Amino acid sequence: MAVSRLSYAIEAGSLALPDIGDIAVFRPAAGCDISALDKDRVEIIQGCYPDHHSFQARGYRVALSAGAQYGAAVVFLPRSKVLAKVLILNALAVTGGGPVIIDGQKTDGADSVLRDCRKRGAQIGDVISKAHGKIFTISGGDFSDWKVGEKTLIKGGFQTSAGVFSMDAVDKGSAALVAALPGQLKGRVADLGAGWGYLSHHVLQCEGLREIHLIEAEHDALNCARINITDPRAQFHWADALTFNGGGEFDHVVCNPPFHTGRAGDPALGRGFIGAAASLLARHGILWLVANRHLPYEQALSDAFHEVKEIAGDGSFKVFRAAKPRREKRK
Fold first, then answer.
1. Can you identify the CATH homologous superfamily of domain 2-146?
2. Which fold would CATH assign to domain 151-325?
3. pLDDT band for position 18 (50/70/90)?
4. pLDDT per residue as tens digits for the range 119-137
5. Could you tell me which residues are beta bridge partners of residue 263?
6. What's the pTM value of the predicted model, to 2 decimals?
7. Burial of 20 (0-12, 13-18, 19+ CB in 10 A)
């Protein structure tokens, strides 16, 4: 666990933190214990809604982006290597070149990041290997070749940003779902886990649509969606799809649910999205869902809906139409 490395390294005196100045902590997950740091000096930089509000509830200062200057920074490596580079560059910039503590699992590329930092001439402090990961401090170095644009324009004219899902191209699963949707989706529609807005963009072409609500936990992805979709029928919600309350029942839900927590596959996350969709839909409502072929969602769909049918798919993906939700509505 990252917490054990951070606590161990600080208690062992292996991490050099200045005595004054705030500490920017980039992308810690909700369950991460950072109590080894002085809470009064910590500012959490986190754009993922559940993690952001978890630390807020614990009494931490939380922001969507870093301020001007900090005495030190901590970067918890994300799954995306591109995002990791952006975070490390940001951390070096707001600390005036360091110190920046980098903490991550081997599966999150900690070894690769350490090698890359050394190649760029950064001063490396003690390297602690613990709990299948590494934690170390860097200062200085020339990372100019890491600089990437904050926004990326991909085929189709869609704007994405570093680290968001399908940042380089349209996801094939989402494209399969779009191809399977009917020409009419009347009434209110919810796009759970909307990302940068690909599904919603196409749903807005359907006849009979009154409004569509994009629900997305990643703030950067939702900002891209706001740029990609300017139709006044679209409403944007920075929220956790698992707890979102739409202020009324929906006629349709479209969904390409995530199935990773960090780098680990987690089908329970997708099952949670299925339950959330059922609770948001009207009695006559329909869920349109795409999933990787290997994911075991059939039972969850049958538990949540009276009618479930696979309507399209190939060797990689399966597309479901699920109707007549069973679950109680959210209060």
1. Vaccinia Virus protein VP39 (3.40.50.150)
2. Rossmann fold (3.40.50)
3. very high
4. 999 999 999 999 899 999 9
5. none
6. 0.92
7. exposed
